[in-house]
Amino acid sequence: MKRYVAKRLFYLIPILLGITLLSFAMMRIAGSDAVIQKFDNSGIAVSQEVIEAERTRLGLDKPFLTQYFTWLGGLLAGDMGVSHVSGADVFSTFISKLPATLLLTATSILLTVVISIPLGVLAAVKQNKFTDYIIRSLSFVGNSMPNFFVALVLMYLLAIRLGIFPVITTGISLKSVVLPTLTLTIAMSAKYLRQVRATVLDELSKEYIAGAKSRGIRFSITLWKSVLRSALVTIITLLALSIGSLLGGTAIVESIFMWDGVGKLAVDAINMRDYPMIQAYVVWMAIIYVCVNLIADISYRILDPRIRLGGDET
After folding, report:
1. Which of 1, 209, 210, 254 is disulfide-compatible with 263, CB 3.0–4.6 A?
2. Buried b or exposed e, range 268-284, using 16+ CB within 10 angstroms
3. Alpha helices by DSSP H, 45-129
4. What residues contact 223, with CB distance under 8 A and at least 6 apart?
5. Interacting residues of 178 by C-beta distance below 8 A, sequence separation 6+
6. Where in the chain is the domain with CATH 1.10.3720.10?
7. How far apart are CA 192 and CA 199, in angstroms?
8. Would you say 177 and 166 are in contact if contact means Cβ atoms under 8 Å apart?
9. For residue 249, is pLDDT > 60?
């Protein structure tokens, strides 16, 4: 296990370098100028000399590889640079947005698990019965609606019409996080409960279920101690992907509700061509996905000893 974890961590180095180099190159060939965009956003008319001076100050007049290795050297030293737009320290700004994203991620995942696992198991146990049809129909509806539509519907019903929750979030609080959490949970729960149902049905068709029944073991015990444990491998895979995307921020939902997380920060940075902030977001996303996938792989080994990691014997 230790050898496998060390190998995966070693693989993290070329993956991060490749991602940062690729994103750095794509931003530079995007066909826009960060300095011109900065002055356009401020509404200030400046001469070409001022633009060139600002480009020199930010180091944008240097060759591409020089810019990249200068940024990479600062990153390894713990310095992610300063924003081209606000002049604020990139690392401090990025860290200040993490609490909002972490809260939204935690509440969305928790509510998704609470909803999708029991309903998925219930749909599988009640296969082709009225309960199963209702749950599958609701999941189909939830899965077919895009997040922005769900967000607008919830905003209209719960915020504008009923006035239960604020239309636009004014800070990080449990009341403000309800609407964005519900928006994300509806789509994720609809997808997860179908996967849980399919996995549980597959387990219920195996021979050990019939063997347990013939030995007089109660179905509820077999279901929760054997079937659900086998289904957790699939559930963890789905959760790992969702946690990665949620920790990276959900740009559409955060922008609609003005939730001040890293997703909204990334959208604002892209619109203003704030390269250092975009690079910070790219590095964050790369680290999150690699770490979450590593944790998921280790969880597989704990839940199912039959799974071999890196070719090691179990």
Report:
1. 254
2. ebbebbbbbbbbbbbbb
3. 48-57, 64-76, 90-125
4. 121, 125
5. 158, 165
6. 99-303
7. 10
8. no
9. no
> What is the distance between the alpha carbons of residues 136 and 194, in angstroms, rounded to a whole number?
7
Candidates 172, 309, 289; CA nearest to 242 is 289
Structure tokens, 122: 């219930």
pTM comes to 0.75
Decide if pLDDT at 295 tops 80. no
| Contact present, 286 and 16 (Cβ < 8 Å) | yes
Separation of alpha carbons 265 and 279, rounded Å: 12
d(CA 185, CA 111): 7
Residue 25 identity (one-letter amino acid): A
Bridge partners, residue 89, by sequence: 82
Total residue length of the chain: 314
Burial 206-221 (b: 16+ CB within 10 A, else e): eeebeebeeeeeeeee
Pick the CATH number of 99-303 from 3.60.10.10, 1.10.443.10, 1.10.3720.10, 2.60.40.10: 1.10.3720.10
Place of tokens 């959490």: 181
Give the C-alpha separation, 8 to 10, whole Å.
Answer: 5
Region of poorest pLDDT, from 26-40, 146-160, 251-265: 26-40
Rounded distance, CA 213 to CA 220, Å?
Answer: 11
Q: Pull the structure tokens for residue 273.
A: 């061509």
Of the ranges 112-121, 183-192, 227-236, which one carries the lowest mean pLDDT score? 227-236
How far, in Å, CA of 120 to CA of 97, rounded?
34
How many CA atoms does the CB half-sphere of 271 hold within 13 Å? 9
